[in-house]
């Protein structure tokens, strides 16, 4: 795995080209360009805020230990993180099948293609951070040293998504039904992560069996999202057990994704 990382680093100029090309192609015929990467999560966040807080009036229950008037910041910090994951889930499946000509003609490690998709989507996430700062000022949130945990959340999420990208891109070549499942998986990831609701609602639920809670907390995205939230609401920083589970899950996902990619690479090249 270390040798693969070194090979990808040596091909960083190609990786930079792929990232720039992906971002350019995605927005080249759009009048608003990169602004769409901000408008979409903002629109989603405002819709959920309108429905659950202004219409249904469940803001107090959803905000939990967070001031209700700052729930929008909690919601948007989760949605921006989710949109990064969502983008990778959508595009990693096509990272190899959609670039056949480049893969078969360029002498570079094939890992650069799914890795490039993850980095391109991370650029969109980072572009949204100033929006979170504006929302934080608007709702009167406190800016504390806890903001330093945000790079940790980004690092863990990138590690997790690199693994997911390597896994999905290679498996999808051999079993293209994977791509058809993505829409359902997007919804599953969204509603099974603490984005709309606080983690405490899951942990304190009497109707949810313990085995379901264990499975829920084993999802690395749960810990990642809690760290994203903790940058603005320190009381939400995950407990030691959840933090260790999150770190272990991210590393295992990266290692597993790389291993599957390497094992399938000969068959993938033959299929392409």
Alpha-carbon Rg, integer: 19 Å
Helix content: over 70%
String of helices and strands: HHHHHHHHHHHHH
| Count of structural domains | 1
Sheet/helix structural class: mainly alpha
Number of helices: 13
- Choose one word for the global shape: globular
Biggest sheet details: none
End-to-end CA span: 24 Å
Beta strand %: under 5%
What does this 3D model show about the protein?
The chain is an all-alpha fold. It has one domain (19-271). It contains 13 helices and no strands.
Topology overview:
Blueprint (H helix, E strand, L loop, with lengths): L1 H9 L1 H16 L8 H20 L3 H5 L7 H22 L7 H6 L6 H28 L9 H26 L2 H15 L7 H5 L6 H9 L1 H11 L9 H32 L1
Helix pairs in contact: 2-7, 3-5, 5-7, 5-8, 5-9, 7-8, 8-12, 8-13, 12-13
Notable traits:
globular; 13 helices; 272 residues; single chain; mainly alpha
In short:
This protein is mainly alpha-helical and 272 residues long. It has helices at 2-10, 12-27, 36-55, 59-63, 71-92, 100-105, 112-139, 149-174, 177-191, 199-203, 210-218, 220-230, 240-271. Helix 5 (71-92) packs parallel to helix 8 (149-174) and helix 7 (112-139) packs antiparallel against helix 8.
